[in-house]
Amino acid sequence: MKILPCFTAMNKNIVCELQISLYGLKQAGRQLYAKLSYFFLSNNYKFSFADHSLFLKHVRRSTTALLVYVDDIVLTRNDAEEIQAIKSLLHHHFRIKNLGDLTCFLGLEVV
Predict the structure, then answer these.
(1) Residue 55: per-residue pLDDT
(2) I need a surface site. Which of 11, 26, 45, 94 has the fewest CB within 10 A?
(3) Which is it for strands 54-59 and 46-47: parallel, antiparallel or unpaired?
(4) In angstroms, rounded to a whole number, what is the distance separating the alpha carbons of residues 55 and 69?
C-alpha cells in the first residue's frame, strides 16, 4: 500500500489505496485463482471436467496438464519444449519460482 500524495503522514485518518491483493486475506486465493485461470484459458488451456483446478492442453499427440493447489502449480507434459515455454510465460507474468522436479505432493511420494 502507499499513502496517497494528498495526505500527510501526520494525519491520523490516513487513507491508503490497495494496489494488489495481499497474501493472507480471505479473497487473495480467489483473486490469484482468477488471474491464473484467465492466463491459462488465454493460452489455449481448458478446464478439466473432473476438477476445475486442473487445466489441460492437447496439441496433436502431446498433452500438458497444470494442477493448481493453493499457491503451487504442478506441471507435467510428454514434451519438454512446452514445459519450458509455459514456465517462461508464467515467470514473465507472475514471477514464479521453480522448485524443481516433483518428489512429494500433498503427502504423496512421486517417483
Answers:
(1) 92
(2) 26
(3) antiparallel
(4) 12
DSSP string, 19-80: -SPPTTSTTHHHHHHHHHHHHHHHTT-EE-SS-TTEEEEEETTEEEEEEEETTEEEEEES-H
The pLDDT tens digits of the residues spanning 57-85 come to: 988 888 889 888 877 888 888 877 888 88
CA atoms of 70 and 28, how far apart (whole Å): 10
In degrees and rounded to multiples of 5, residue 61 shows phi and psi of -100, 5
Residues with Cβ within 8 Å of residue 44, at least 6 apart in sequence: 57
Burial of 37-74, coded b for 16+ CB within 10 Å and e otherwise, reads bebbeebebeeeeeeebbbbbeeeeeebebbbeeeebe
pTM (two decimals): 0.67
What are residue 6's DSSP bridge partners? Answer: none
